[in-house]
Write a structure and sequence with these properties.
This is Metal-dependent hydrolase. With 166 residues, the protein is an all-alpha fold. It contains five helices and no strands. The model has no long low-confidence stretch (mean pLDDT 94). The structure holds zinc ion.
Length: 166
Amino acid sequence: MYKRGHLGVAMLTLAPITFWLLTDGYPAFAVLVAGTVLYLAMLPDVDHRLPLVSHRGPTHSLLFAGVVGAVFAGAASLVEPVLSIAVPGGVSMVAFGFLLGFGSVVAHLLGDVITPMGVNFLWPYPRTWSLSLTPADSTLWNWGLFVLGVFAMAGAVALAVQGAAI
Ligand SMILES: [Zn+2]
């Protein structure tokens, strides 16, 4: 999947989460989560630029998602003693950090699993899963997912704001 399609899938994933965060009274977290997921939307494709790393190999796995989650959890554990804020879902800041990093990578993998090349979720175990819905370079799918994502996010924000106003 190309960048536009990945951003679309990321926004589709984010829409219900954004709605929940806004209606639960965490607007700052909603912005933080959306910003992080969209910023990291293309992170696994760093493998295009890394020597000796095959495309859709290690960086397209749940293991990599766990590593990114661990980095975020580590950062959160440094911040937690200094800055204690109420975290959505009542989880610790460390758990929240892990989920944010983990989820950002998984959102990318969801965009790639619909293409015939698929995703090796359990790398290094050699098995690829694919829904084979569309080739990665499909203009229709990349634009379609992007537009759907924008609508889903706009809808989530509009509904949450409307709900808050009633
Ligand atoms: Zn990818």
